[in-house]
Amino acid sequence: MITPTGALILLVPVLPIAIWAALTDLKRLKIPNQAVLAMAAVWPALGWLAVPTWTAWFWGFGFLVIGIVIAYLAFALVRFPGGDGKFAAAISPIFVGADLGNLLLIILVCMLGATLFVQVIRLIPAVRRAAPDWESFKHWRIMPFGVALSAMVVVYLVAAIWPQV
Q1: pTM of the complete model
Q2: By the number of CB atoms within 10 A of the CB, which of 77, 89, 90, 116 ranks highest?
Q3: CB of 118 within 8 A of CB of 145?
Q4: Tens-digit pLDDT profile for residues 130-139
Q5: How far is CA 61 from each of CA 45, 57, 58, 109, 117, rounded to the nearest angstrom?
């Protein structure tokens, strides 16, 4: 339901925030609260320009609340990382009105792609030498999920901008 122009408007602030969150998660295995708050501020500030109706904009706030509840429960019950959950909640309004099939495909591809990407760059000696203190390179069994979340929101917005054929 997001318009191509609206997706472009959202992509301008979302892209640097997503890169910031992904790199910080790779380096420290933590997504800073400032990145979460910055991403959460994008919807109230610009979301009304991205969707065709006020109803859709208000539904975005509903998605945010639902995302926060799910993140809290996941953290409390299954030890899902808190920063990842908060960041997932912060990006959730952007997906308001999305086609569920396409969204699930984007989620699958981004999760698998981010996992493969992180595992491959961990193996490159030049990368390990350039970033010797990065926590994600020290812990092989831990996936910095912020990379996948950032990829999801950016890929979704780019796909919404892309001309439909």
Answers
A1: 0.93
A2: 90
A3: no
A4: 988 898 888 7
A5: 12, 7, 5, 26, 32
